[in-house]
Amino acid sequence: MVPIKLDEFVSQFVKGNPGESKKTIRKQLNAAVEAKQNGARCIHCGNTIWAIGSAVVGWNGCFTCITGEANSSDDYEIDAVCWE
Ligand SMILES: [Zn+2]
User: Fold this and answer.
1) What is the C-alpha to C-alpha distance for residues 15 and 83, in angstroms, rounded to an integer?
2) How many angstroms does the Cα of residue 43 sit away from the middle of ligand 1?
3) Considering 3, 62, 75, 83, which has the largest number of Cβ atoms within 10 A of its Cβ?
4) What angle do CA 32, 64, 14 make, to 5 degrees?
5) 3-class SS at 18?
């Protein structure tokens, strides 16, 4: 995955989703990052969660279960929890 700073992702996200509030997505991201640091697992398959995707969809999931795609090499993950 491609590491991105939390603030940078928040800016990009609200640009792409004008109806969303920065405060809300930031709060959800912080919670997802913390969950990942604490070892949260995908509720469907048990893999390590994708913090960005989990924050956006509102449940703990891995990249594949959230997007249906296997290849995450071009997708962002918050730098603090981007381990691959
Ligand atoms: Zn999964």
Assistant:
1) 26
2) 7
3) 62
4) 50
5) coil
Q: Ligand 1 centroid to 51 CA: how many Å?
A: 12
CA of 77 to the centre of ligand 1 (A): 15
**pLDDT averaged over every residue in the chain:** 96
What's the total number of domains in the chain?
A: 1
Residue-wise pLDDT tens digits, 41-61 = 999 999 999 999 999 999 999
Say how many Å lie between the CA of residue 49 and the centre of ligand 1: 7
**DSSP classification of residue 79:** G
What does the pLDDT look like over 8-19, one tens digit per residue? 999 999 999 999
Residue 6 CA, ligand 1 centroid: distance in Å: 22
Ligand 1 centre from 61 Cα, in Å? 5
pTM: 0.94
